[in-house]
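User: ok so my PI wants both of these folded by tonight, can you help

Assistant: No problem, let's get them done. Here's the first:
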Amino acid sequence: MHHCIATIKSWLQRCNGQHEGCPSPKPKLPTRLLYITEKIVQLVETESLPYSPYLTLSHCWGNDPANMLKTTTKTLERHRRGIEWGQLPAVFRDALTITKAVGCQWIWIDSLCIVQDDEDDWGKESLEMANVYSNSVLNIAATFSSNSSNTFFRNRCPFDGDGPQLFARLAHWPTHAMITGQFGFLPGRTEPDRIAPLLQRAWVFQERLLAPRTVHIGSSELIWECNSSLMCECGGISATQQGLKPRFADACQGRSSREEVLDLWDRIVEIYSGLRLTKPSDRSNALSGISSQLSSILKCDYLDGIWGIDAARGLLWETNMAPAARVSEDCPSWSWMWRYDLETSRSKVFYKNLHMDPRLRVQFSASRCEDHDGDHSEVVRSSRLHVKGFMLRATLTHRNQKVYSDSSAMSVETWELKIGSSINRWFPDCEASDRLEGLEEVLCVLGGTNKYGFLCGLVVAQLGGEGTLYRRVGQAFLDWETRDDGMFDHGEMMSVELV
């Protein structure tokens, strides 16, 4: 324990003294904080308090969140009076110990500082995540703990590995040397749920980006992650200005162009869409802190994962999720947030570089807008997009066919997009039997051309059989070389509303 605390204090001191990219927090407190004393910790309303530095904690709630120690309308007054240290789970107690050791008396823990069964309080506080984490001194991450019951300061696990033998010839030696050693986990080559369950959580992704500095408590060692550096105790990780966090810090500090910020957003979407949420309805909230930070740079409307200045390209997302992945009723069909997969963390949404069709125009059809804390952005309270572009009238065809090999046969379900006499590939956004039954006539909204020469577009279907309301049902790829010469005779400039 003493070694861990000494290491954390040393890293924090170095970061505060040497890292220009890791600024001091703004003197703004969260709505509530936990005040640490020798025997109890008190939940305190901060409205009338002077500023004091505080830490935050990122942790997994575990498989039994109902029995997690948390603040509710029933326990609020009790927690204000004080919670004894012995009532706290081990991860919380260890976080308090670290907080005191670095010279602070205050810490913010989500389960205790937000009234969990008060929807108004939860909604308000979830939108304050950007301020809570970005203004903290340090974020403590229980990265390798799947729940709050395991203490940070247990006996450390050795690095996993079989100690493979390597044979190398050193340039200045006349003979070979045999080198043996143990090798720890390699990123991307082991099961992330086993080695770092916390990093598979969507809320925690936001917390890592927003906090100026995070110390990860690992099973084998501590890892330091801040806006300027990444390091570990053993020295195996030591790098500066790499990864997503420095790019996000550069964007928030005004050192990135709009194009760089939008490229950063694409990468954020790709990573975030593969992370897990207990409540799919949190999909937008768990990203709101990041989006509110970037909105001050982009200075445009933002709606359900898409930026107003990039809305045309923002619609042309792709996914590697199976068609059977779930759809969210809380998000519009045109948003990448509409689809999610609870079964695996390997399902992701991504964007490809396209040469955009200049005729495609997309606007938020906002019925009401609100200024977002004076940061020149607007929170749009509408889920409709006004889309104008060249649209092809198409017909969906569906067939099952048998594919035979030497020893087996399998059934393949094929969906095709027929435009005139041209048969084109398209990929449904959801399970065919669920939402595509009965659909025949659709529109293909041309979006752009990819590097292989394929025209890429949205497949949209009319709602109710008439009118201008449509929903996204998939994405199409039209091959220039095999298309019917008269294919574009089946299209025209049109305007529709996507919901």
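One down. Here's the second:
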Amino acid sequence: MAIRFFCLFLICGAVRADFPALATRDEVTTEDVHSQLLKLREDVRLLKESYHQVVVEAAAQTQQRDEIGKHEMEIQGLKKIVARLEERLEALQAEKREQMKPPKVSNSTAVAARSCEELRRSNESVESGMYWIDPDGHGTGDAPIHVSCNMTTGSTLIPHDSEEPTDVGQCWDAGCYSRPIQYNATMRQMIALLELSSDCTQTVQYDCKIAPLEFNGESQSWWTDRHGVRRNDFTGGNSTQSKCQCALDNSCLDRKLQCNCNALSPIETTDTGKLVSSFDERKLPNRKLI
């Protein structure tokens, strides 16, 4: 909001009226008197206009002062609201920091559940959100891990540092780019969680422009499983073939290909895949994208 200030200068001075010297009685004529009267009337008119202008400007200045005062009161009110909101924000942040603290595993009765499903079974009223769990067991192994729990399904989500898109730039050779995935959990805890679960899935998305996942029968991109073994599949569980979700849905740009990106389209397209790890085939988590 911009407030413009005006300064009013009232200049006071002597009003001067120039009157010609009165003529002698013998010299005064009707024309002289009429001329002097007209001049006096003009002087009076000018004085009235000047006075009116001064009154108008003074009124405008008074109104402006009133507006400024009103704005200042509004600003003070907003400052009080901001102060209250800042206090509330600080309280919420303190509460969140307290919630983020791991449970004590010694000298305390607080014991983390081994999985979100176990936590849900112990308390059916618990809501979905971030919780500490200890898949390898209380008092042994690694420290508890902070995970996202879906209390509707009892599923556990482990966050990592590669959830947002990453631009790899121009990369022409097979396997020319690699990105290790850092999880918010140790490998020991993730393997313990997998052994408690009936299955585990991980979704991969690949956006491309003339960047195939497979070219002339050779894989250009792959991933490594928890054992460090190279995996070419992006869905379906076949580690020897690069296959994407569109192949399973029969919706690839070129129905003869297994992935949209293999069509070498100059227009950006996308491939997705769901990596699956069952109790019999333990390959997740994904250690590295290449």
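Residues 199-290 form one domain. The radius of gyration is 42 Å. Good luck tonight!
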